[in-house]
């Protein structure tokens, strides 16, 4: 213990005597450890920490797969939900939820505000194994229409809106203009499925056939979560639910329905981000290795300058093991200081991550510097101290006593310029460059991919277009006397100052709401298609295409006079390619439910689901009201206003907001946004990925440049006498410049070659994050190699130029 304290005191004294060296080393290691601790905290909170529910490994998600929508479509029909719940033998319970946004007005006369919410089946908490912190769970009776005027609120909402009042149970709030009683407060951190603050019960059973006909309406849609029975494996559940779903399809005459996906709840939550986070983790690991290589090079250079000091200690009886222990103590002290700095950087990095998170990262409330992160940081301190300190310590402990005590320095010609003597330092630089190239290749691919994604034609002109989502004040089932219409509101908006065009639509691009339906094209039968023909259906007013800037490719736009008959339809090019490529689509008729519709026009494809998704078949029907008929049932539903401004969209938004406030007795404005901003937000996730990788690659590039500069700078210092002799004997200064540059570029080129091999293998990990390019894109690899060699050339040039300025007379006296 005494020896350890002596080593610590001596190490601290030595490091304080060289403050610049110590500061550079601590900053370098702190940067590497901080980045790793931050990403570990994120990965641990999202991927590794168990879900905060009872026996979370038994919780699963079930849904029908829609390949054209990827993982974005996970809702199931009421018919499927009822079948899985009532007939499965592997499930101990199945619950349903539907994320939504509610307009909530709290007590005190404050205006309504949008709150993230969810409609849920009454047994959701039972399936999750969670109970309210205050109040009681929902009952089955509270699911029924007319009785579902109760709600649970989150702990966060309880604190922020009710100041943690104990008498919150029984209070009333207005949810979508309906009085709702608070019956429960959920525990701290419960925000299932993702940042929800209000939960209301709802019946997700399929609507029954009407009394006048046998038309079954698949209107109830929801996301399912289920709990496996004790002893049931995931594979067993998959087999049974697949067989059950197939039987249900046959019974309901749906032989070509979508396959069923069954996965654990955790995998369903993090599946889309697992690759991203693990790629981040690997990238910061490379940054840490580069930092360790840099510090190891610093310590190697410093060890050579301490040869006389170490030789004196050895001559006085210090054994090789004691010398190694002393030098490792200095390394671990540097690592500990770097770890302390790293924790501060990690905390700041986590806050930045949470602030700039594009919204696709789940479980963000569980991310933080907890005990696990502190333990991980401590292990990194021990590991990095050994990694960058062991090789310099072993080398320094092999000091030649005779030469060191006699000369006090290394030989003039045998410094770091000699590759044979300093091959380990050279190998460290090669490794730094190689690791940097791997990170640069990943960042370059993401940048290239993002540029391609950002320049995709969305199929419409979003500039200066405002979209306002509206819902009628009274939604739901409509009777025969219902005559709700948005027409007069649309006409008012068209007359507003600064408006070029305006239209109505049942959904807008990237708005998240869409309806798909099956149909039959005239002259075909279901057997003509591998899967039953399906298309999205968008109801629009005639000016929609002009307002949105959607190109008319063929035919014409339906007219106002044709809206009442409702017997015409327009389709997009994707519809024609998939279902009518064999003949002209204009004039063909579509059997949609009981209606026969004639195709009168073909418009360009619109990226409804995202710039990275192929356009899907779409039909456009005419409407100006908010009543939709489905069989014998009629519903009052939301609509959207799209308004193109002549010049100033912000002014149009202000005027539009005033109009909707005046119409508040009939409609409620749910949201209002610029389509240009929505389009930019739709690529927030790849932009975020590109930013993170770009920052890490930039750090790696700087560290690699510093490493090359350090090696060459020390080489020039050690070879000062040799360079002076060369110049004195007539060597051209250009030859000296080329000699030093050649030494550095040889190391950089070797690192690039090794890095290209590593990048070829490593970048395949991020293949799923790329758009429009492959993981081994030759153009990107060539570009990042050129960038790295360019930076290396700059790092080499500074010490090379210093070498050309060596004074031969000074150099000949140099020791």
Plain-language structure description:
With 815 residues, the chain is of the alpha+beta class. The chain has 22 helices and 26 strands. It folds into four domains: 1-57 and 275-409, no CATH class; 66-258, no CATH class; 423-451 and 684-815, no CATH class; 474-665, no CATH class. Helix 2 packs across helix 9, helix 2 crosses helix 10 (371-396) and helix 12 (423-454) packs across helix 20. It is elongated and about 100 Å long.
Topology:
Blueprint: H1 2-17, H2 19-48, E1 59-64, E2 76-77, H3 78-87, E3 91-105, E4 113-120, H4 124-128, E5 134-135, E6 150-153, H5 155-162, E7 172-175, E8 178-185, E9 198-201, E10 221-228, H6 234-251, E11 260-264, H7 265-305, H8 307-315, H9 320-356, H10 371-396, H11 401-407, H12 423-454, E12 465-472, E13 476-477, H13 487-494, E14 499-505, E15 516-518, E16 520-521, E17 534-540, H14 544-548, E18 552-555, E19 568-572, H15 573-579, E20 589-592, E21 595-603, E22 618-622, E23 627-630, E24 633-636, E25 639-645, H16 649-662, E26 667-674, H17 675-682, H18 684-718, H19 720-728, H20 733-762, H21 778-804, H22 808-812
Tell me the number of helical segments per DSSP (H or I, 4 or more residues long).
Answer: 22
Distance between the termini: 40 Å
Number of structural domains: 4
Q: What is the alpha-carbon Rg in Å?
A: 34 Å
Sheet with most strands? 8 strands, mixed
> Using DSSP, what is the number of strands?
26
Strand content: 15-25%
Average of per-residue pLDDT values? 83
Give the uncertain stretches in residue-range form.
Answer: 209-219, 408-421, 476-482
Can you give the helix content as a percent range?
Answer: 40-55%
Form type: elongated
Which structural class fits the helix and strand makeup?
A: alpha+beta
């Amino acid at each position: 213990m005494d020896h350890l304290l002596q080593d610590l005191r001596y190490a601290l004294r030595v490091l304080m005597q060289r403050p610049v060296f110590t500061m550079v080393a601590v900053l370098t290691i702190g940067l590497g450890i901080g980045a790793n601790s931050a990403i570990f905290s994120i990965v641990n909170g999202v991927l590794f920490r168990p879900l905060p529910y009872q026996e979370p490994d038994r919780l699963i998600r079930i849904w029908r797969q829609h390949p054209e929508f990827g993982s974005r479509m996970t809702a199931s029909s009421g018919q499927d939900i009822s079948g899985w719940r009532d007939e499965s033998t592997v499930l101990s319970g199945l619950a349903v939820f539907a994320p939504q946004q509610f307009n909530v007005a709290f007590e005190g006369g404050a205006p309504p505000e949008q709150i993230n919410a969810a409609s849920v089946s009454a047994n959701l908490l039972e399936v999750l194994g969670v109970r309210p912190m205050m109040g009681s769970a929902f009952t089955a009776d509270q699911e029924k229409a007319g009785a579902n005027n109760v709600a649970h609120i989150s702990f966060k909402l309880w604190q922020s809106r009710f100041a943690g009042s104990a008498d919150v149970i029984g209070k009333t709030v207005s949810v979508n203009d309906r009085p709702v009683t608070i019956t429960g407060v959920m525990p701290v951190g419960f925000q299932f499925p993702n940042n929800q603050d209000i939960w209301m019960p709802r019946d997700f059973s399929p609507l029954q056939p009407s009394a006048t006909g046998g038309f079954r309406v698949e209107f109830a849609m929801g996301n399912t979560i289920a709990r496996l029975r004790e002893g049931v494996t995931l594979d067993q559940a998959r087999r049974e639910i697949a067989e059950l779903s197939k039987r249900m399809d046959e019974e309901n005459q749906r032989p070509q329905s979508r396959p069923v996906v069954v996965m654990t709840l955790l995998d369903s939550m993090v599946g889309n981000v697992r690759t991203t986070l693990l790629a981040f983790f690997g990238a910061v690991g490379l940054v840490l290795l580069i930092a360790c290589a840099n510090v190891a090079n610093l310590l190697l250079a410093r060890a050579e300058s301490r040869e006389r000091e170490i030789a004196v200690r050895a001559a006085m009886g210090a054994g090789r093991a004691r010398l190694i222990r002393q030098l490792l103590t200095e390394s671990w002290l540097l690592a500990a200081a770097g770890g302390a700095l790293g924790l501060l950087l990690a905390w700041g990095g986590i806050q930045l991550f949470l602030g700039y998170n594009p919204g696709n990262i789940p479980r963000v409330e569980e991310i933080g510097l907890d005990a696990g992160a502190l333990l991980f940081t401590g292990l990194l301190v021990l590991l990095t101290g050994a990694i960058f300190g062991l090789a310099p310590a072993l080398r320094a402990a092999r000091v030649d006593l005779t030469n060191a005590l006699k000369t006090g320095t290394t030989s003039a010609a045998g410094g770091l310029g000699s590759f044979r003597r300093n091959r380990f330092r050279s190998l460290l630089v090669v490794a730094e460059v190689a690791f940097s190239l791997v990170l640069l290749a990943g960042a370059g691919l993401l940048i290239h991919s993002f540029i391609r994604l950002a320049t995709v034609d969305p199929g419409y002109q979003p500039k200066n277009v405002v979209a306002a989502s509206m819902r009628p004040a009274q939604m739901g089932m409509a009777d025969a006397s219902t005559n709700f219409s948005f027409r007069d509101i649309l006409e008012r908006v068209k007359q507003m100052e600064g408006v070029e065009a305006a239209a109505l639509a049942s959904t807008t691009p990237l708005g998240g709401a869409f309806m798909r339906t099956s149909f039959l094209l005239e002259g075909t039968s279901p057997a003509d298609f591998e899967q039953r023909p399906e298309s999205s259906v968008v109801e629009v007013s005639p000016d929609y295409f002009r307002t949105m800037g959607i190109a008319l490719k063929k035919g014409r736009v339906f007219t106002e006079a044709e809206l009442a008959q409702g017997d015409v339809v327009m389709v997009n090019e994707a519809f024609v390619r998939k279902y009518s490529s064999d003949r002209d689509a204009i004039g063909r008729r579509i059997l949609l439910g009981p209606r026969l519709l004639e195709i009168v026009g073909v418009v360009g494809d619109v990226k409804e689901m995202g710039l990275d998704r192929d356009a899907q078949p779409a039909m456009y029907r005419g409407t100006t009201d908010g009543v939709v008929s489905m069989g014998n049932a009629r519903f009052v539903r939301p609509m959207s206003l799209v308004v193109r401004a002549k010049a100033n969209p912000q002014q149009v938004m202000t005027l539009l907001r005033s109009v909707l406030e005046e119409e508040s007795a009939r409609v409620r404005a749910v949201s209002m946004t610029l389509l240009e901003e929505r389009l930019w937000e739709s690529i927030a996730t790849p932009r975020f990925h590109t930013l993170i990788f770009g920052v890490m690659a930039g750090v790696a590039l700087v560290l690699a440049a510093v490493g090359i500069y350090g090696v060459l700078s020390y080489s020039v210092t050690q070879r000062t006498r040799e360079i002076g002799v060369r110049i004195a004997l007539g060597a051209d200064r250009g030859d000296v410049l080329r000699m030093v540059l050649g030494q550095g570029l040889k190391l950089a080129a070797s690192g690039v070659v090794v890095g290209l091999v590593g990048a070829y293998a490593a970048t395949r990990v991020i293949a799923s994050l790329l758009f429009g390019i492959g993981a081994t894109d030759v153009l990107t690899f060539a570009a990042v190699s050129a960038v790295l060699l360019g930076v290396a050339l700059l790092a080499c040039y500074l010490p090379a130029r210093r070498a050309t300025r060596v004074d031969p007379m000074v150099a000949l006296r140099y020791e």
